[in-house]
Write a structure and sequence with these properties.
By secondary structure, this protein is α/β, with parallel strands linked by helices. It is built from 28 helices and 24 strands. The strands form 6 sheets. It has a 6-stranded antiparallel beta sheet. A 6-stranded mixed beta sheet has the order 8-21-22-3-23-24. Strand 4 and strand 5 form a beta hairpin. The longest helix has about 190 residues. The radius of gyration is 69 Å and the shape is flat.
């Protein structure tokens, strides 16, 4: 007990998870009324005598946590409500509830779970007093780690013994429940059953399908034999009908063709005669039209020359108006500047008046102040009356002695003032003259800039004029020389056009050929090993072999020749990436070819190897030989038949494209576009002709047409005229500017002379001023010496140094004041005069005069601009008329060219029509003879049809064909399109031979057949049945796959859930068992482990649980003692709890079968997992801390708890009650 107390760290602290704080029960089982049980600590033991209600307390916790009533020792929920006797049980409205107060981890906040039994016998769930559904209630418990279904938080009485006695299968079931994989068990079993059923069904349907398929195959052979017989008979009949119908069709078409040709040639003959006459008439009309066009062109050129003369007359007037307008604009601009200047002067005038008025006020104020000063100031030197008399006497005496000197001084003062005023006036005059000089200099600079621009532009204009004249001469010479050369080039282009028309180059190549050609060019550019297409690398030696070589090569005609196989693969990869059409590639290094048979070159006749009639580079020999092989070419079809089908057989092609193979087949005709493809051999020649044509056309474009050169010459001539006029006006402007500059320069020189003339007078004045100032100072000095000598005794008597001190201090102040007054009076008079002068000045008159001047100038400018506009409009009108005449002349010239071309064509046409007339007459007679022969052949074929009783197809209503005769009209629509095509005579012979051969072959095959005609119906029945069985089999297979997929998904999920739990429990059980069994004598403890009987499907087989206590050998679980089994079972329980741990673990008397030693070990283990400090010490063992609530009757167990909850029976109230005892207060050191 002391040791347990010492390890306890306080009832409120835990390392991991939340805990149950208290329990509030109301009328639950043996607990009557409302009772609060707790608080519960991290390790709480519930103790009490048997029958006191300990297990009911555990049931209360289980009840509030959602455990079903069947596990709470009650058949139904009403059995859990407190009842003293049967009468209480029968009472209505009985209720019971349990509230569990749970402390959340970390914050310690309370969360209340309440489950109540209602009066109707149902359950009501609340969380924090709020009614919730069972799903929300269970989800909240699950979020806290409390799994109600797995009961991972509680061990009832007997659970330990039950686990210890479980067999492997039962352990598996327990583990599935813990892992939650048992939730998938029903789905797994259902899907497994469905899977087996689907597999059996699929196998049965497959067997049925095999049987029907084998039966159908047998009937199919019989059916095919019968169908073949009927088909051969029908084919023979149709073939004969087609043969005769084709013969009649060819005869009818030949007759229609000949009749049409006869009609056409008769019409052509008549038309040719009419055309000949029409051409003659048209030629005469065209010649007349040609002369009219020439007259129109001459008239237009005369009118254009006249209009040009009118424009030349208008140009001088326009230039003169332009000069006048420019001069007026310049005057208006200068007047505007002068107005701006006058406005500035007006502004300055107003400011000057304000300044004078302000100065006048200041001078008036100053005079008043001086008057006040004169009154305030008294004579500071106080003299007696006799001293004053003495002073006046002496002063009079001094005045008499210095009278002459004072007169001289006064004269000098006047002269000095006069000279100062003269100097001031002279300086003002000189300043005005210098300002005018600066103004003239500015004007000179502006005019000089204009003159420089003109001087710079004149050489440029002269240079441009020279260049234009040279260009004009060059164009004139070029126009004269290029005419003949242009006509020569045009004639050569016409010849090349004729050659291209002969080669049918005017037909556009197909889109497919264009793509192939473009693709080959791209490959050749991108990959070095690509040589090109076969049509580009070789060609027939003669034109007559074009079609034969085309047929012999076949699909290899468009093949691309490459150097090696790797280059071919790269090209194919490129085609796939670019989504281009596929092409055939021939690798030179790896292609296998058969050698040439030399004796084929000596067969004689026209026969020779196709290989020998092809021109190519010898490096490409293998590619050409691979394409044509040992194919022969000959001129005639008969010769080809002899070579191909008699004796040793060869592959032969005729020059007209008929191919005969060794097997006896013959291919030919106009279909398939072989003739068109054969033209590709001329592509290189056509390409060279096109290039030559483009080159000649480029040369023609570079030369330019004669009319274009004429237009250029006229344009250059107009530029020359305009530039000459521009030079003339530039020279005139240059002359005017030079005259203005000379005038300004003359005025500037005169002003400078005036300034130079005034400069000596200024120097003379300055010298005279200096001289007079010196004389004045001498006079003042002499006067002062005389006065000082006279006043010497008087000065000593009044106490001053001399009388001048007195005059300086007193009398001179008065004199200065008087002089200041005089100066201010003069200044006042001057300011009044100036103000009167400024007020009298009229500053608005010049501005008004300038505005009048501008108005008159603008009127004159407007008049000139109107004259200029009218002159320009007249000039522009004449220019437009010239352009119209020029365009009209061009139109007439184009019409003249067309007319001349038409005349040439008409002449050629007349020559060809005359030759055609004679040719048409000969052809008419020949066609009439052919028509008679064809009608005779048609009658013979109809007689043969009647003889062989063959019915030819006819049109139901002959009127539908537009025929008016009573004869039968045959229906040729059943014939193949190949038969309905136009054929050459050789092709018809070939088709006739094919018909005869096919008829013979069909007759022989019919004679060899012996069919069973009933097999036709039997085969159809079996085919229908097979289709139904196949659909049934596919449905069964689909169902089997879907069920198998679902089964595998559930199986995998069940396996993962089970193995997750097993792996965790298997890893932890040995550690837990060692903790429960180790001791001082056996520090390592025992060993425990789990083994799976089947690792692929562990949930279908057992789990072997093995536990070996210390010092014991291996034994089965059944052979262990009761205590050992209990310890092993507890180890398994704790390991299972650690997989999905709840925050608390409630155990009901799990120590019943244990001795004291094992009880102490189990209690120590539980304490290590519950108490905070012990839990922290155990962190390293991988365990998980939890709150433990244990019901126990053994003191060696509950003395290690942190708190005890005692349950006792209250006999007075006939119910269970509890007491809580905190053991943490009694820790021992």
């Amino acid at each position: 007990m002391a040791a347990a107390a010492a390890t306890s760290g306080g009832h409120g602290s835990r390392a991991v998870g939340g805990r149950i704080h208290r329990l509030e029960v109301e009328n639950f089982k043996s607990y009557k009324g409302t009772q609060t049980i707790g608080p519960f600590y991290d390790f709480t033991a519930i103790i009490g005598p048997n029958g006191a209600g300990k297990s009911n307390l555990m049931d209360a916790i289980s009840f509030v946590l959602g455990v079903r009533s069947a596990h709470l020792r009650g058949a139904q929920l009403k059995d859990l409500i407190y009842a003293l006797d049967d009468r209480d049980k029968e009472e209505r409205g009985r209720r019971a509830s349990v509230r569990l107060v749970y402390n959340l981890p970390g914050t310690g906040a309370e969360l209340q779970f309440t489950r109540a039994i209602t009066g109707a016998g149902g359950s009501e769930y609340r969380i924090d007093g709020r009614v919730v559904t069972w799903d929300d209630y269970n989800a909240k418990l699950r979020s806290l780690g409390i799994l109600v279904k797995a009961r991972n938080f509680l061990v009832f009485q007997g659970d330990v013994e039950s686990i210890a006695s479980k067999n492997p299968k039962e352990l598996t079931a327990l583990l599935e429940q813990i892992a939650a994989s048992d939730e998938l068990k029903r789905e797994y079993d259902d899907l497994e059953t469905q899977k087996s059923t689907a597999e059996e069904k699929s196998a049965l349907v497959y067997q049925e399908k095999r049987t029907i398929v084998m039966e159908r195959k047998q009937k199919k052979a019989q059916k095919e034999e019968a169908e073949k017989h009927l088909r051969l008979q029908q084919d023979l009949k149709l073939l004969k009908t087609d043969h005769l119908l084709w013969q009649l069709y060819t005869i009818e078409k030949d007759m229609e063709k000949i009749e049409a040709e006869l009609e056409e040639e008769r019409g052509s003959l008549q038309q040719a005669r009419e055309e000949n006459q029409s051409s003659e008439n048209e030629l005469a009309a065209k010649k007349k039209e040609q002369s009219a066009f020439l007259k129109k062109i001459t008239m237009c050129e005369k009118n254009m020359a006249k209009k040009k003369l009118d424009i030349d007359k208008k140009q001088p007037e326009l230039l003169k108006l332009k000069e006048q307008i420019s001069r007026l604009k310049s005057k208006i601009k200068s007047c505007n500047k002068e107005i701006d200047k006058k406005k500035d002067d007006n502004k300055k005038h107003l400011e000057e008046m304000k300044r004078l008025q302000s100065a006048l006020a200041d001078v008036t104020s100053a005079i008043e102040e001086l008057n006040e000063q004169g009154q305030d100031k008294g004579v500071k030197l106080q003299l007696a009356d006799h001293q004053v008399q003495e002073y006046h006497r002496i002063k009079e005496d001094a005045g008499m002695r210095t009278a002459k000197l004072r007169d001289e001084k006064e004269v000098l003062d006047k002269e000095l003032n006069a000279d100062i005023e003269a100097k001031k006036n002279l300086e003002e005059n000189m300043q005005q003259l210098r300002s005018r000089v600066d103004e003239i200099s500015s004007q000179e600079s502006e005019l000089q800039t204009k003159l420089n621009k003109i001087l710079q532009s004149i050489p440029k204009h002269e240079e441009e004029l020279t260049h234009l004249r040279e260009e004009h001469n060059k164009i004139a010479k070029e126009r004269q020389s290029s005419g003949s050369k242009y006509q020569t080039l045009k004639q050569r282009v016409d010849e090349i056009d004729t050659q291209l028309r002969e080669l049918k180059a005017d037909k556009n190549e197909s889109e497919r050929d264009a793509k192939f050609s473009e693709t080959a060019k791209s490959l050749k550019r991108l990959f070095p090993g690509v040589h090109g297409r076969m049509t580009e690398l070789c060609r027939p030696s003669q034109k007559k072999y074009n079609l034969a070589v085309t047929v012999a090569m076949g699909k290899f005609m468009d093949a691309v020749v490459v150097e090696d196989e790797s280059t071919g693969k790269e090209c194919i990869k490129y085609l796939k990436e670019q989504r281009l059409p596929p092409q055939t590639f021939i690798p030179l290094q790896s292609v296998r070819v058969k050698p040439i048979i030399e004796r084929l070159r000596t067969l004689g006749g026209s026969a020779q190897l196709i290989f020998d009639v092809i021109q190519f580079d010898r490096a490409l020999e293998k590619a050409v030989l691979y394409a044509v092989g040992n194919t022969l070419v000959c001129d005639k079809l008969d010769e080809a038949k002899t070579l191909s089908w008699s004796g040793e057989r060869y592959k032969v092609v005729t020059v007209d494209g008929i191919l005969l193979t060794k097997s006896g087949t013959m291919t030919g005709g106009v279909s398939g576009g072989m003739e068109a493809r054969s033209n590709k051999w001329e592509d290189s020649r056509i390409e060279s002709l096109k290039k030559k044509k483009n080159q000649l056309e480029s040369e023609m474009a570079e030369l330019g047409s004669p009319r274009e050169l004429q237009r250029k010459e006229l344009a250059v001539s107009e530029k020359i005229t305009g530039l000459e006029k521009k030079l003339h006006y530039s020279n005139v402007e240059q002359k005017n500017l030079k005259e203005k500059l000379n005038k300004l320069s003359s005025e500037k020189r005169n002003i400078e002379k005036e300034i130079d003339h005034l400069e000596p007078g200024k120097d003379e004045l300055e010298n005279r001023l200096a001289k007079n100032e010196r004389e004045l100072k001498k006079r003042e000095k002499k006067i002062n010496e005389i006065v000082d000598k006279i006043y010497k005794d008087f000065s000593m008597s009044v106490g001053v140094k001399n009388i001048r001190e007195y005059e300086e201090k007193q009398l001179k102040d008065a004199q200065a004041l008087q002089e200041r007054k005089l100066s201010l009076s003069n200044q006042l008079s001057k300011l009044k005069y100036q103000l009167q002068y400024e007020q009298k000045r009229d500053m608005h008159a010049p501005i008004a005069k300038l505005k009048d001047t501008i108005d008159s100038l603008e009127k004159e400018l407007k008049s000139l601009q109107e004259r200029e506009s009218s002159a320009k409009a007249a000039t522009e009108q004449i220019s437009n008329q010239m352009e119209e005449l020029k365009a009209e002349a061009e139109d007439w010239k184009l019409k003249l060219d067309e007319c001349e071309t038409a005349i040439d064509e008409l002449k050629k046409q007349n020559d060809s029509v005359a030759a055609a007339l004679a040719k048409l007459d000969r052809q008419l007679k020949l066609k009439e003879g052919q028509l008679v022969q064809l009608r005779s052949r048609q009658r013979e074929i109809h007689e043969k049809c009647d003889l062989e009783q063959l019915k030819l197809p006819t049109v139901n209503d002959p009127m539908d064909t537009g025929s008016s005769s009573q004869e039968l009209v045959l229906d040729y629509s059943q014939l193949s399109e190949t038969y309905l095509q136009d054929m050459r005579l050789s092709e018809r012979d070939k088709l006739e031979a094919e018909f005869n051969k096919k008829i013979g072959t069909l007759v022989a095959e019919i004679e060899r057949t012996a069919p069973n005609l009933k097999a036709l119906d039997q085969y159809e029945v079996l085919q229908t049945k097979e289709k139904e069985v196949s659909e049934k089999f596919e449905a069964a297979r689909k169902e089997e796959r879907e069920v198998a997929d679902k089964y595998n998904t559930v199986k995998q999920r069940r396996y993962e859930l089970f193995m997750e739990a097993f792996d965790h429990i298997s890893k932890g059980i040995d550690k837990i068992y060692k903790q429960l069994t180790k001791s001082h004598t056996h520090p390592l403890g025992g060993t425990a482990y789990l083994n799976l009987e089947n690792e692929d499907e562990p949930f279908l087989h057992g789990i072997k649980y093995t536990a070996m206590p210390p010092t014991k050998r291996f034994r089965d679980m059944e052979q262990l003692s009761g205590g050992e089994k209990t310890v092993a079972a507890l180890a398994l329980l704790f390991a299972i709890h650690s997989f999905r741990p709840s925050p608390f673990f409630i155990l009901d008397e799990v120590d019943a079968a244990l001795d004291n030693l094992n009880v102490a070990k189990v209690a120590g283990f539980i304490r290590s997992k519950s108490c905070a400090r012990a839990g922290e010490e155990q962190d390293g063992d991988g365990g998980c801390g939890f709150q433990s609530i244990v019901i126990s009757l053994k003191d060696s167990f509950y003395d290690k708890a942190e708190a005890l909850v005692g349950v006792y029976r209250d006999s007075e109230r006939s119910c269970s009650r509890t007491l809580t005892f905190d053991l943490t207060k009694y820790k021992e050191a």
